[in-house]
Specification:
By secondary structure, the protein is of the alpha/beta class. It is built from twelve helices and 25 strands.
């Protein structure tokens, strides 16, 4: 059977990659377009940001992953426009790629809820660059504290504020507490890293809102035991280079800090707006595309949107969470649907998400997990989290590297990837500003 249909996949994340892999035997030519040449395992980005893993441990080249798929080519490019009537996508370098079927899986970025100027002072965690920037800020804060003689300025250096009580915020806060109380113990001469203050700020009345209330409380207690101050029902009203303003009820507070990390929300990729302009498809408040039950666009059955860019409802009408398992299952669903259509077989008309559970790690041997009616905490939940995350890594080599690194970190309480990278002009910014 000849390769007659042209399938274009935009985005090499979980959704796009799973779609491509499940189309390896399709009678079609596949083109996977991504502005990066690698697939990134985002759930472990926080470990890069806190020095536990190196970027290469959680990323794999897309060409290497797909090299045995003879019907697939990988194109390094950034898609800037989509032309449904012509069946074309346009790239930033002027390249145009024709398609018969299009899968858009470009994910999401940070949402600062209308305060985009906070981005400069409060980096989020979605890319390798975000992770290395956070690692630089965190480690520079300790280095600056070592050189700071004034107690109040040193205290500001050692105050870390994490905004957002979802899994990313909880994992970041727990990792920062471990760095301060375990990893850096005895590393400095003029201050004790245990004096570090880690604050987790959440606007709702509990952290890990998608989880059962009992697990949220267990997570809060675990963070408190680790030395993290959890501020609930607290909103951020301003962020500057050297301070953050918080409001809890009628009480307002300004805290001096040089390290604010953002994990409070996501905004769909710009391709959602492009699809809206090109097809008239509706978007939700976060810019996600409201798809049909089969994940296609109304009036455009050959265009599919999956992953974090898609607003897809579950059985009770609530939108599915922006997590890796959703994107994986959607990628597999669309691939099987296209394969059935190409082979002129009946195709599934509705995507149904199988929720296999949720889990979040808090720190060393501390985690929470929810699998159907079953709830787990502590060491068992942590081991479950380790197993699942290693299993989801795409390349076998990455799995071995991560396992060995985690074993070493567990035995030594060390984080060997504590490298400060960046331009020389960015080194010691706090001291330069003070001078």
């Amino acid at each position: 059977m000849g390769l007659t249909a042209r399938i274009v996949i935009i985005g090499g994340g979980f959704g796009g990659l799973y779609a491509a892999q499940h189309l390896k035997r399709a009678p079609a030519s596949l083109t996977l377009i991504d502005r990066r040449n690698f697939h990134l395992f985002q759930p472990l980005l926080y470990q890069v940001a806190t020095g536990g893993l190196s970027p290469a441990n959680i990323a794999a080249p897309l060409r290497a992953i797909l090299k045995r798929q003879k019907n697939t080519r990988v194109l390094l490019a950034e898609v800037v426009d989509i032309h449904p009537e012509q069946g074309l996508v346009s790239c930033a370098d002027g390249t145009q790629v024709a398609y018969d079927h299009l899968i858009v899986a470009t994910g999401a970025s940070h949402n600062y809820f209308g305060q985009d100027h906070w981005r400069e002072h409060a980096p989020g965690l979605k890319t390798i660059e975000d992770a290395t920037e956070i690692r630089r800020k965190v480690l520079l804060a300790f280095e600056t504290a070592e050189r700071e003689s004034a107690p109040e300025r040193r205290k500001a250096c050692l105050r870390f504020v994490v905004v957002g009580g979802g899994p990313t915020g909880v994992e970041l806060a727990g990792a920062l507490a471990e760095i301060a109380h375990q990893t850096l113990k005895g590393n400095f001469r003029h201050f004790d890293p245990a004096d570090t203050e880690v604050l987790l700020v959440e606007a709702m009345d509990r952290i890990l809102m998608p989880y059962a209330p009992a697990l949220s409380e267990k997570a809060r207690q675990a963070l408190t035991e680790m030395g993290v101050s959890v501020r609930l029902n607290t909103r951020v009203t301003d962020i500057q280079a050297d301070r953050i303003a918080l409001k809890q009820g009628e009480h307002e507070e300004i805290l001096a800090t040089h390290t604010v990390l953002w994990g409070a929300g996501v905004q769909a990729s710009p391709l959602g707006q492009i699809l809206h302009q090109a097809t008239g498809v509706a978007l939700d408040r976060a810019g996600r595309v409201k798809v049909q039950p089969d994940l296609s666009l109304p009036g455009h059955p050959n265009i599919y949107v999956i992953g974090d860019l898609a607003h897809c409802s579950n059985a009770d009408g609530a939108p599915l969470p922006g997590v890796a398992p959703v994107a994986m299952q959607q990628g597999k669903f669309v691939a099987r649907r296209l394969l059935a259509l190409l082979q002129k077989r009946p195709a599934a008309a509705r995507f149904q998400y199988l929720d296999k559970g949720s889990m979040a790690t808090i720190g060393r041997a501390r985690a929470v997990a929810e699998v159907g009616p079953l709830k787990f905490t502590g060491h068992l939940a942590w081991l479950m989290w380790l197993f699942i995350h290693v299993l989801f890594l795409v390349e076998f080599e990455n799995r071995i590297q991560v396992l060995l690194q985690w074993a070493w970190n567990y035995l030594t309480r060390n984080r060997s990837a504590r490298l400060i990278t960046g331009e020389k002009s960015a080194i010691m910014p706090t001291i330069q500003q003070q001078k």
